[in-house]
Amino acid sequence: QVQLVESGGGSVQAGGSLRLSCVASGYSGNWMGWFRQAPGKEREGVAAISTTGGSTYVTTTVKGRFTISQDNTKNTLILQMNNLKPEDTAMYYCAQSSARSLAPLVASYYNTWGQGTQVTVSS
Fold first, then answer.
1. What is the number of H-type helices and E-type strands within the chain?
2. Strand pairing category for 10-13 and 117-122
3. Which residues does residue 121 pair with via DSSP β-bridges, in sequence order?
4. Distance, CA of 61 to CA of 50 (rounded, Å)
5. Measured torsion, CA atoms of residues 76, 65, 39, 48, in degrees rounded to the nearest 10
6. Span 94-106, pLDDT tens digits
């Protein structure tokens, strides 16, 4: 069974950067993505990548600041987050989907989830 383990979260000041990593043990699926959930809010898609074709999708609120990539040699998904804002504060989750066709930033398409890593941005 695939397991996803996130790391790299922490506390930073606004304008700072963090790099999240997600190591997948086993098959990485057709799509992998990063999602986040702030207290009292629904889980939202942040970024996703096709593990086969390399296509990427980033939600508009982080476009130009966050970059998703993958290191296939290490079975690792990466989210580089720059110019962080207080509204980026949330628990960030890595997820995997075996679907061949999906809406990349919709959580219901993803069937395997990590336990999350907390990102806190102070003003």
1. 0, 11
2. parallel
3. 12
4. 20
5. -40
6. 999 998 888 999 9
